[in-house]
Amino acid sequence: MAIEQVSVFFENKPGKLVEILGALAENDINICAYSLADTSDYGILRMIFQDPAGAVAVLKARGFTAKATGVLGLLIDDRPGSSVRAVKLLSDAGINIEYTYAFGVPGGKACVLLRVKDNAQAEAEALLRADGARLISHAELF
Amino acid sequence: MDIKRCYQPEIEAASRDYLRAIQSARLIQMVKNCYENVPFYQQKFSEIGLLPGDIHSIDDISKLPFTVKQDLRDNYPFGLFAVPRDRLVRIHASSGTTGKQTVVGYTEEDVLHWSEGAARALVAAGATKDDMIHVSYGYGLFTGGLGLHYGAELLGATAIPVSSGNTQRQVQILQDFGSNFLCCTPSYALFIGETVADMGIDPKTLPLRGGIFGAEPWTDNMRREIERLLDIKAYDIYGLSEIAGPGVSYNCACQDGLHVCEDYFYPEIIDPDTLEPVPDGTYGELVFTCIGKEALPLVRYRTRDIAALNRDRCDCGRTLVRMSKPRGRSDDMLIIRGVNVFPSQVEHVILEQGLEPNYQIQVERKDNLDVMTVLIELSDAMFSDSVQVIQEAERRLKNAMLSTLGVSSSIRFADPRSLPRSEGKAVRVVDKRSLV
Fold first, then answer.
1. Which of A10, A44, A65 sits opposite B387 (nearest CB)?
2. Which of A128, B35, B215, B242 fits as disulfide partner to B338, beta carbons 3.0 to 4.6 Å?
3. What is the pTM of this model?
4. Which of B385, B390, B398 should one mutate to test binding to chain A, selecting the residue with the greatest count of A CBs within 10 A?
């Protein structure tokens, strides 16, 4: 029960981010959260949308390379120390977190998004569940 | 005529009539050799109804068919050799378009003639048998290293086979061994010159007097910069493995064009479209016939280099015809740090890696070194949202390019459809090196 995140590749040069965000705005697509990974040559913008397939279609129509990737979504209390437990659990199990980012949600909560390798995802999910973590689905986010 | 700095004045400053007599005799012998020993040529001659007896003098050269690089590839590796295997003393090879190399062979006599060419170049640059010749061309299948090495030894000088790389050690040897002449690519000479400065060494304190540089295009500005950085005189040398290697032609003290060793390598300039010879002084494609070669006697080999010939008497006293510095190519070959690179090789690597061939090659000169970047469009199939995975793909491509091309490159992924398409005239190569 993963959250569908949309990633888009672009060359790291001025105007590219405007192009991506502009295309989404023109199509009235709201971005729930985003995070940017960059190197000196290129960037990967990772975003959460209510309708990931729709967003991918818009980005592809503009010539971008975009695709959906499953990430784990963890609902935690928005207070000090609440994300360390989950990260430590995965770390102790030898599961590498490729990347993570988070955003606040109403009601004093926060959502942590975690990406682990595809072949480790089921194990990570089971470990978190067994530990009583609150995993949320894509639908629950909206 | 009193001619200074000349290794073989009896040839280099011979009368034109004498040279023509040598050329005619050698051409007749060579055509006979090709006809009798190279099935490829026997067939080519037969196709146009030409028999060895039809060649009476060097003037008949235009009756002969051309040879192109593809012919060497089609007959890979030894198909064009005119001598039995036991007469070969050396094999060299240069890169080909799809990873397959162009293989060349030499008899003992061939190596001697080639070495004479290199020795002529060394002496014309001012070297004597008492000098230390520092060879920083790569040693190996590439002809650069061994070509100058054998030239230096034939001259009776001391060859130092440093090969390329490890620039600080190069400078150390220049200083400690007291090298008098440096042989390498001009871009590497500049890099060595800068390293000398970086190491806080005054070039005036080095025994170095001159340098012989070639295997890649360079400009008069680069020459002046090399001369300034190393406090030497810089001379040009030209060659290609198909003909022999470095020493096919060379600068004399006048530094005004390159004297061609036309007693062994007969030059012509043709219009690359009509294939007709053009008058002296007109630029066109440089063609060589290896009239003195035994193992690989190529007939009218099209070099693809664009140059012009000058038969005016040179102030140095040599009568050997001069060719201009090549000023371009009639094909798409690139010369990156002395290594021949064809866009088709790059494409081959990309396809081999299972990628789509939407790419562009960019070449720049940074800190006097050629830098090649291959831009490849990132397709959906290749895209991963993990930076690590993309970087891993870059590394894999970089290694594959290095092993196929023999020269390093950087790989950069580009947005889809951002590069010119292969339909029509795709801009596959953007050469930003200013060589004017």
1. A44
2. B215
3. 0.73
4. B385
